[in-house]
Amino acid sequence: NKSGNMMDECFHENDYHVSRHIYSNRVFDQVHERQAQEIQSLRERCTDKWAVQKIKGLLPILDWLPKYPVKQWLPGDVVSGVTTGLVCCLQGVAYALLASVAPVYGLYSAFFPILTYFVLGTSRHISVGPFPVTCLMVGSVVLTLAPDEHFLRPVNITGVNETVTDGRLMEVDGEAREAQRILVACTMTVLVGLFQVAMGLMQVGFLVRYLSDPLVGGFTTAAAFHVFISQIKTIVSVPIHSHNGFFSFAYTLIDVSRNINQTNIADLIAGLLTIFIVMAVKEINTKFQHKIPVPIPIEVIVVLIASAVSHVMDLNSQYGASIVHSLPRGFAPPQIPNIALIGKILGSSFSTAVVGYAVAVSVAKVYAAKHDYTVDGNQELIAFGVSNIFGGCFSSFVASTALSRTAVQESTGGKSQVAGIISALMVMIVILALGPFLQPLQKSVLAGIVIANLKGMFMQISEVPVLWRQNKIDCLIWIATCLASIVLGLDVGLLAGLVFEMGTVVVRTQFPSCATLGNVPNTDIYKNMKDYKNVRCIDEIPGIKIFKCNSPIYFANIDYFKEKYVVHNRFWQSICKSQTFCEIFWNAFKKKNYFDHRPFMTPHPGLSHICCPSQNGLVPVASLGVENQAFEKEQVPELDEGASQPDSEVKVQVDWTSELPVSVSVPTVHIHSLVVDFSAVSFLDVVAAKSLKLVVKEFIRIGVSVYIAGCDGKVPCVTGEMVRRMEALSFFDEEVTRDILFLSVHDAILFIQLETSTGNDEDPLAEKVKLTF
After folding, report:
1. Mean pLDDT score of the chain, rounded to an integer?
2. Which of 133, 221, 205, 174 is nearest to 397 (CA)?
3. Which residue among 399, 528, 581, 709 has its CA within the 20 to 30 Å range from the CA of 282?
4. What is the mean pLDDT of the segment spanning 473-495?
5. DSSP-derived pairing of the beta strands 612-614 and 617-619
6. What average pLDDT does this structure show over 606-633?
7. Pairing of strands 514-519, 543-549
8. Which residues of 254-276 are buried (b: 16+ CB within 10 A; e: fewer)?
């Protein structure tokens, strides 16, 4: 009746019954022949269809342009392209300040990369061009390699009849400085492009997955902070020194505070008004985005009004306002990167390449998911790499994408890359004809536009409390990356955040969760006994322990695994729970003279954590300083009979069915089999395999059979790749054979029950032990 009631509680009308053979790994391979992997030759693969697919993969424009629906998409792309082009012009000029180069190079950076991405890119919606974070990373390198101090020259004083050079007064040679700075920026841009193309060709776009969302969020927030600090000097228009590296933001603030009395009121007012107006109108655009057909291009309006006011009032001459000055028409001639600079910018270029790609592909995937198409990560690497190489040769700095600019392109009706190419045409018009109209524009207005566009990045701080409630480790990654990037600088901070993130992964796998499983009666379901201890349907199978480790097993967590292996199999405590029992062991050794000359190879899973006999008496294992025995040789040569015998532990082998050398009462132990669930173990390394093999042998020597089971179809398991790895690691031998492997925990349990019912009626775990050597 009890069993019937249990079945009534555990089974319902929708349950089903499965009948099949009990499968060990060996039997399964014999019944179901493994399918041989088909290896196609190069000639079989290189068909015309395959070649066309490859060409379209490298040149996506050949795939989407012939299918372009002109009537449906072209009107929206034209409106979007014109609007986005105006924003690109202004953001390009503004972000040139972050890169520490002349504003005209920002226009080049908003034009050239779009041309190549139009041909090679796979995203239909992102707006390619300058991005504040990458611009700031380029600017930090530019200021490091080309500071103002390198371009000082004596001041020429013009008299009535002659020009005299005064060596006591120095001024900055602006032309030489700008030439060197753009050379550094272009060289770095080409190197960034080479890194991206190389990663794309090697198909390593997956590496960006290591930049998790919390890490990217913390990094971009810190970058927004650095951008804000860098623009303060432009808003207040005070002279400061260039600072990079550790605590650079603090040194910048100190310089600004020291020279705050030199603040230009005209620039300060213009900058603050720009920030307030741009942010307010952007809020209106966001709030009424469903009612306004096209977002208000507030940046364009502000720049036009500010340029007109500055020109009419002559703010530069009358009030000393800092203006753009030179914005020449036309394009600069192409230039070759300076090879001598590569060694100095190698590390910064790689980190900038990774950040630029990570941001761009993240934005691209957001809009691809929204509009139901896919983005090829590796092709995006090639597209941005070629764009940066091409742009770097034409006086551009690193290109990525900006979320605000992409949002404008998508919200104004952009459907494809055609909107991007039209925006490039708008930028070209400004470069060729309208550039001089922006020359009276105050730099503080551009700085205000930059700061106003940082709101989205700063708002990421509001995600921290939510992240803390969801996952505290991810929240710590966000905070650690943000603080490290603020204090140490963007390059070192990103590396520190990545190391911290990888450290959390190592810690989580080094101390994995382990569990003892129980069976839901009359089912093949096994659950954690601890989680379901109050549920009547969970029952522990008599005589069998089921142990599960929810992690890969490797050198860093094998000791923790063995410790949990022992703790979850508590029958050791019932055997060796008293010092008296250990003393009886020691007396038996001493009486029978059971010491041999071989050092103790590995402690028993249960006995060693309590006491071990040696010639000095019973000694805790911890005091013996037992080292990791994974690489110990299993054969140790015997010492000569007359040689001195070192203090050593003795190897203990327990036969539960034999007589003790002395009369002793041993507690009854009802364990005869141990099943290890490998369903969550994705790999073993050489250290783990050797250590696990020794543990399995120790259990076998005390009469406990060990079985390995588990396959969920999602990770390499005992039915395939895992077995090959174990064979390669020499896990199997005459004592530990492949017969211990089973497809599932339930197969192993049924096999054990079958063996127990048809085997010896006596309990294999008798109440007596025998010490053998």
Report:
1. 76
2. 133
3. 399
4. 89
5. antiparallel
6. 40
7. antiparallel
8. ebbeeeeeeebebbbebbeebbe
CA neighbours closer than 13 Å in the CB half-sphere of residue 147: 8
* Distance, CA of 196 to chain centre: 18
User: Token pair for residue 102?
Assistant: 């002349």
- Show the tokens assigned to 437: 């109209």
Longest distance between any two alpha carbons in the chain, whole Å? 123
Q: Which of 100-104, 153-157, 455-459, 663-667 shows the highest mean pLDDT? A: 100-104
**Residue 76 is encoded by which pair of tokens?**
């929206």
Would you give the distance in Å from CA 299 to the centre of its chain? 35
Q: Which of 722, 701, 698, 708 is nearest to 547 (CA)?
A: 708
Q: Amino acid identity of 409?
A: Q
Q: Which pLDDT tens digit goes with each residue over 650-678?
A: 444 555 445 545 555 544 556 788 888 88
From CA 332, how far away is CA 226, in angstroms rounded? Answer: 30
CB 208 within 8 A of CB 354: yes
Mean pLDDT of the region 179-195: 93
Question: Where is average pLDDT lowest: 7-16, 163-172, 214-223?
Answer: 7-16
Secondary structure of residue 704 in the 3-state scheme: coil
**How do residues 424-453 score in pLDDT, each as one tens digit?**
999 999 898 887 888 888 888 888 888 888
Confidence (pLDDT) at 596: 42
730's torsion region: left (phi>0), alpha (psi -120 to 50) or beta? left
Quote the tokens at residue 767: 């109440």
The answer to whether 85 and 422 have CB atoms below 8 angstroms apart is yes
**Structure letter (DSSP) for residue 679:** T
Query: Do 241 and 390 contact (CB within 8 A), yes or no?
Result: no
Q: Is the pLDDT of residue 495 over 70?
A: yes
* CA 110 – CA 106 distance, rounded (Å): 6
Between CA 314 and CA 293 the distance in angstroms is 37
Verdict on whether the full-model pTM lies above 0.70:
no
Residue 45 pLDDT > 70: no
Residue 634 has pLDDT above 50, yes or no: no
Reported as type and span, the H/E element at residue 518 is strand 514-519
Tokens found for residue 562: 């063995």
pLDDT: which is higher, 48 or 71: 71
Helical spans, DSSP H, in 702-744: 721-728
Q: Which residues contact 316 (CB under 8 A, 6 or more apart)?
A: 310, 322, 323, 440
Q: Which two tokens stand for residue 457?
A: 């990045």
What long-range pairs does 256-259 form, CB within 8 A, spacing at least 24?
256/232
Helices and strands (H, E) in the chain, number of each type: 31, 14
**Taking the chain, what is the end-to-end CA distance rounded to the nearest angstrom?**
51
pLDDT value of residue 465: 92
Element (H, E) at 156: strand 152-158
- Which among 339, 338, 358 has a CA at the least distance from the CA of 350? 358
What is the rounded distance in angstroms from the CA atom of residue 461 to the CA atom of residue 449?
21
In a 13 Å sphere around the CA of 267, the CA atoms on its Cβ side amount to 26
Rounded to 5°, the CA angle 30-36-40 comes to 175
Residue bearing tokens 């029992």: 581
